[in-house]
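Input/output pair, single chain:
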Amino acid sequence: MTGSATFLNENPEDPFSPSRAVSAVLDPHGRITGWSARAEAVLGRPAREVMGQVAAGLLVAPEDRSSVDEAVAACRKQGGWSGVLRLRVGDGRTRRFGLRVWPLERSGGLTEWLVTGAPAAAVGQWEIDRSVVDGLFSRSPIGLAVHAPDLRILRINRALAGIGGIRAEDARGARIGDFLVAGDAETIEARLRLVLETGEPLIFTEQPCRLLTEPSRERLVAVSAFRMEDADGRVLGVTQLVEDVTDRHRARRRLALLSAAGAGIGTTLDVATTADELASAAVPGAADHASVDLLEQVSRGEEPVADGGGGPVRRTALHGVLSAPDRSALRIGALNRFPPDSPQGRCLATGRAVLEPVVGSSVPGGGPPAPGRGLPRGAHSLVVVPLTARGLVLGCMSLWRSQLPEPFEEDDLTLAGELAARAAVSIDNARRFTQQRRTARALQRRLLPREFPAHPAVVVAHRYVPAGGAAGVGGDWFDVIPLSGARVALVVGDVVGHGIDAAATMGRLRTAVHTLADLDLEPDEVLSHLDDLVTRLAGEQEADGEEPGEQVVGATCLYAVYDPVTRQLCAARAGHPPPVVLTPGGAVELPELPAGPPLGLGGLPFEAAETALPEGSLLALYTNGLVDGDHHDVDDGIARLCRAVALPGRSLEQTAQEVLDALLPTRPSDDVALLLARTRTLAPELVATWELPAEATAPARARHLTAERLAAWGLEELAFTTELIVSELVTNAYRYAGGPVTLRLIHHHRLICEVGDPSSTSPHLRRARTTDEGGRGLLLVAQLAERWGTRHSRGGKTVWTEQLLPGHRD
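Output:
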């Protein structure tokens, strides 16, 4: 019986304890269905007299009947009620009783009500508590809100209603998000949930509290909260105390602005970052919007010219207090030329700050500024200060107010000038590195993959961190290459050295890996070909007689092929760290994989090994920069990696980032490439395999099996072309290869048809003459299939084709 738990652990001093309180049970219509012995003794009414009677009409004094209506409404809305009523006892007199009401959930969804009471004289403290509660809700200057366990509002006081601009009764049953903007409401609710879950109180925590009725008006509140519990520890909800501290926050923010700007501007040798730091430092402490426009030659890392005031500028940074972008404002990266009569034009031409308390005063014809003049719509006040270093103007910073009603003043102009002076020196120092950084970034974008298309075999996440945290590139690389038969190749490599030379060699190796992967070679064969290529590259460098320095003379590589049909991982490595495998059960393993020599030594063999992976296994491939540190060896680094990938409950992207956070210093001394892959398995019903005898009936049998399987898969539209493909491939296999023929169909995002035989001779396309009776089969296959090819294994070869599914496009 819900509610009965309140009688456990009885406190003998509690006037509402079972031994001292009267109690009754009411049905949903208010009729008495239960009457305690204590009620008979105290109220002087036997059970036979009251059972089945309406409690309010029988027991409550007429002068308190209106209070009964309020109690009933509170019970229905809040799930309970407590208060004081005058009750009629057996001798006709009335006595004041403190009452409490709880719901009782019966079987079948019926709700009854448990009423307990004690003489008011015995609950004097309760009256005092009630007075305190009434004061908190009617006279307290501190905002107060009481929330149910689901964070719906049970009650707020007048002070909080005044902050929200609503009536207190309008908040009952609502949520915080009904009054505050979504982001602020989510923050407050998240913290209240934490109080509910942990019981730890929240004490004077400041957070934004913008109203839906005034979303642009800044408001901060200090929030304290505690969890409400009954005598038995049952959670009743959470109470929240709210104090408006907006003015205090603004004063503190202005004092801290210059100090924070000194520490936050010029942290890097990057022009765009420094400009962004400047704009960020100004918002929202000094302005609602801030932009930094640099002369075009400065943004490219070139020397500014003395008369560059009339030249084009590039928008380099833009910050605002509003989350939605202002379409009238110039976008970051956009090139613009400010008119000579505009505030920015005058500032760039003269090198002096411009203050426009009212923006329209500088716009021809008055009215709001137009797009392209560097002013967002709604701006009513403007300050423009020059960015000057070594007597040369590098650009300007513009500050606007659109949400804050106060216009800019001279003090604001002084503050903006100090911010700009701090940033200008850093920008001038950083611009010398801009061109080199852009070149390195362009090279990185072209040499390393950005995103990989979805593949049925694996889900991947990857990270690349150049040495020292620089924006350039090194010799590490990774790749995910789709192969025939729904398989996928996972590649990680590391070229000796850093910088442009290592990156260029890495690009050549990556291209070579793609070419070798298209040939469907075994992993050890791929490494053998890469070994030859690295040897030739080292010879070319030596023959070119390059200047002394860091030369690329070797590389390491791990090449792995995963088959989602067989769940087999076949891998080989050339002097590279072993992969790490995390099974779905949480076990971390290092597969038995021969190390092999590094690439470039020449003539030494490589060995491949196969490992069965359960579906959902996590495979980690990486370069030695991740595990080889200044304060630990490779084995210790691999152990740390194993612990990092084994932490449960994270997505693949989260795991990749947390691995870097756990293993890497802020500025790693070596390049790092990390590739995580979670394996998938094709369901058995999506793969069909048959072994056919090498005889003349094999093509007909293959066509029949193919038609049946495609019908089961709902791919009747592909039956005609697939039967032709199967017939031609099986016919070629039994005619020219001998031995049994294996036919396999795979259904995923494409329809794959594979025909294997024991011969190692590859088929070739040829054009048959008009008088030839044969020779057109493979040409027909090439015309019908989207892709086709041949892969070799130690037991023969497999000819495969891929067809697009109806309604699917790559």
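Confidence is low (pLDDT under 50) at residues 1-12, 361-374, 768-774. The longest helix spans residues 523-544.
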